[in-house]
Specification:
By secondary structure, the chain is of the alpha/beta class. The chain folds into 4 domains: about 15-235, Rossmann fold, CATH 3.40.50; about 295-365 and about 370-395, no CATH class; about 400-485, Luciferase, Domain 3 (Luciferase, domain 3, Roll); about 485-650, GMP Synthetase, Chain A, domain 3 (2-Layer Sandwich). A 5-stranded parallel β-sheet has the order 4-3-5-6-7, sandwiched between helices. A 5-stranded mixed β-sheet has the order 12-13-14-15-16. Strands 17, 18, 19, 20 and 21 form a 5-stranded antiparallel β-sheet that branches. β3, α4 (about 85-95) and β4 form a beta-alpha-beta unit.
């Protein structure tokens, strides 16, 4: 029996999807009905450049027509490489207009990783942000030699590139101008481009984190994205006309859903900071109504506040601590179901005028109505702090495979340990092994060219998330960690390393933690300190240091980290308490293969790289001379030598 083509197969899977409903049609609708309304803003050399919905559509169609002129066809994969820039968003929509598939990569992806992605996905065309990314791609071409697939590299930032005569490179602006000329010469081309995409087409090929190997391609169709966004909007998590800041990596599902999917469906004003380094200062000027960032980013924000307060005059410090402690007590009581009295509300109002509102304004969060966090568990201290400020911070739960929109906390039902209820249209259940299963039209249809992995993940009409968890009596979902990471000690004590690691990382002094203990007598941990937070603590406590390595090995730093571990140990059953730890003399680095680009641990790499340290900890050694292999941004390798201290937590 002849198999249906991919689009026909999609129609069988999603019979209620309407073919004409897609991202490009939404863009055209916005341009027709709101042509002069601002759709996107970019800060360039301190000046905000604006693009209306009509500008947005003109750029997308011009690029699509020009890209087709270069030879891009339906189902071609187009690599997108760089930080958030309007041109890269226009390029993704332009590729979609041709029924080609944008495949974004993280801007810090190494040439070797890019080479693998290009080969696996048969990528012939790439759109790069600037000279740095172009040079990286040209290096890949050199690596691949005669086997190189790359035919054209289109760049946005012309600085340093216009003077280079390379037949592989071409300016984004030139592609658009050529395309706009085609549109003038062919009167029906615009309508033709708008009519090509279908809701059943792949809108983007995103990728898994790759914790256990090569990242898997995750195709998300227009329907998956729109279904997820509309579910969230119907439940009140998004509103029309939100002001949004696009600063998350374009290769991450969160940015595609917020900055493209929701932005087109709900006419967001998307604001792009000048650089990643200026995003926090730009945030004040943007003053978004919707703000979404990772727990790590919220924690870093809290660290900056604490650093600023510690450097303030004594009276200001005293006033801050009084009102913040008061607000935290009120928030804890509120989460326990207790309502504040009239007097308590009045004193909170005083604190709002003096402390809470000025801090929110300083951070750029004064207008935020919908603040969210997702990606990993957030520390209780961090979560409560921002809620005490008056931000209704809530958690999302999801994966790339379900458009990151599976469950979330509602505004009036927030629990510290749960992630909320499933979105409308999303079903969640727990199987007999404790794994979270889900289904809905936001769930993808299978991995790119990975039938075995698809069959493993999509079974019996349900997506197997790989996460362990349970549903509470009121329907709220609690996530414990990855099913694959459920391990046992030598005494057969069951534990999930990520559960303990997340709680260690709730401390802003700990950037990364890798818990050890599988088939061992007890648990130990490798710690990577947070250089900014511990560095500030060291300055305040007269601890001298000249480098990360020196600070990590200082006896007082070990005492500080030991205190953080002891707090977590109090929450753990005695057989699972951490007994020994080491402060690593370097951070876990994606270039060294120790973490993914989204900073998830690659345990096999860590076990192999630091095997000598691990054995020394379990052999009760107190010191070890260790050489850590490192990979520089240029691709060159080296080693970082240090004598490391191995500590018991009960010392």
């Amino acid at each position: 029996m002849q198999q249906p083509n991919p689009r026909e197969q999609s129609r069988l899977l999603h019979p209620n999807w309407e073919d004409s409903d897609n991202l490009l049609r939404l863009l055209a609708y916005n341009a027709e009905h709101y042509p002069n309304q601002v759709a996107m803003r970019e800060r360039d050399h301190g000046i905000w450049q604006e693009f209306t919905w009509q500008d947005y559509l003109d750029q997308v169609l011009g690029f699509a027509a020009g890209l087709e002129q270069q030879g891009v066809k339906a189902d071609d994969l187009v690599l997108i490489l760089g930080d958030n820039r309007p041109a890269l968003y226009f390029a993704m929509l332009g590729a979609i207009a041709l029924r080609a598939i944008p495949s974004p990569a993280y801007p810090d992806t190494t040439p070797e990783e890019l080479s693998g992605q290009i080969q696996r996905e048969n990528i012939r065309f790439a759109v790069a942000e600037d000279q740095e990314q172009v040079d990286k791609l040209l290096h890949v071409v050199g690596l691949q030699g005669e086997n190189s697939l790359i035919e054209k590299i289109i760049y946005d930032d012309r600085r340093g590139l216009d003077q280079q005569a390379n037949p592989l490179t071409m300016a984004f602006e030139e592609v658009v101008l050529n395309g706009q000329q085609r549109l003038k010469d062919q009167a029906d081309l615009s309508a033709d481009l708008l009519a090509r995409p279908s809701i059943h087409d792949i809108a983007a090929l995103l990728h898994s984190s790759g914790t256990t190997g090569v990242p898997k391609g995750i195709p998300l169709k227009h329907g998956h994205i729109l279904y997820g966004v509309r579910n969230a909007a119907n439940a009140g998590y998004f509103a029309e006309g939100e002001v949004h800041m696009a600063y998350l990596p374009i290769a991450w599902v969160g940015d595609f859903i917020f900055s493209i999917g929701a932005a087109l469906a709900l006419r967001f004003v998307v604001n792009i900071p000048e650089r990643q380094e200026t995003s926090q200062s730009d945030l004040r000027e943007i003053a978004p109504t919707l703000y979404f960032c990772s727990p790590r980013a919220w924690s870093n924000m809290l660290t900056r506040i604490q650093v600023g307060i510690d450097e303030s005059p004594p009276f200001k410090q005293k006033m801050y601590h009084h009102f913040m402690d008061y607000a935290l007590r009120l928030e804890r009581a509120r989460l326990d179901g207790k309502s504040p009295s009239v007097g308590q509300k009045l004193w909170y109002w005083v604190g709002k005028q003096l402390i809470y509102a000025p801090i929110k304004d300083r951070l750029g969060l004064s207008r935020v109505q919908r603040p969210y966090t997702a990606g990993e568990a957030i520390g209780e201290e961090v979560f409560l702090f921002f809620r005490a400020l008056g931000l209704n911070l809530r958690q999302f739960y999801g994966q790339t495979e379900n458009c990151a929109l599976a469950a979330a906390q509602s505004a009036d039902e927030v629990k510290l340990h749960a992630v909320g209820r499933p979105f409308p249209g999303v079903e969640i259940k727990i199987d007999e092994d404790g794994e979270i299963l889900m289904r809905g039209d936001n769930v993808f249809d299978g991995y790119y060219n990975k039938p075995e992995d698809t069959a493993e993940t999509l079974r019996d009409g349900w997506m197997h998330t790989g996460d362990a968890g349970y549903l509470e009596d009121d329907g709220q979902l609690v996530v414990l960690g990855r099913v694959s990471e459920v391990v046992y000690t030598a005494q057969k004590e069951r534990f999930i390393p990520t559960y303990i690691e997340n709680r260690l990382q709730f401390s802003h002094y700990i950037r990364d933690a890798c818990v050890l203990g599988k088939d061992r007598d007890h648990l130990n941990v490798i710690i990577c300190i947070d250089f900014q937070a511990v560095g500030h603590w060291a300055t305040e406590n007269s601890v001298p240091y000249s480098s990360y390595a020196e600070l990590s090995q200082h006896p007082k730093t070990y005492q500080l980290i030991q205190e953080q571990i002891e707090k977590v140990n109090q929450l753990l059953p005695e057989p699972l308490r951490i007994q020994r730890f080491v402060n690593l003399h370097k951070e876990f680095d994606a270039n060294d293969g120790e973490v993914t680009r989204t900073r998830k641990l690659r345990r096999k790499v860590i076990d192999q790289t630091y095997s000598a340290i691990i054995e020394a900890m379990y052999n009760d050694a107190e010191l070890i001379d260790f050489e850590a292999p490192i990979v520089y941004e240029t691709g060159e390798t080296g080693v970082l030598k240090r004598t490391l201290r191995l500590h018991n937590t009960n010392k």
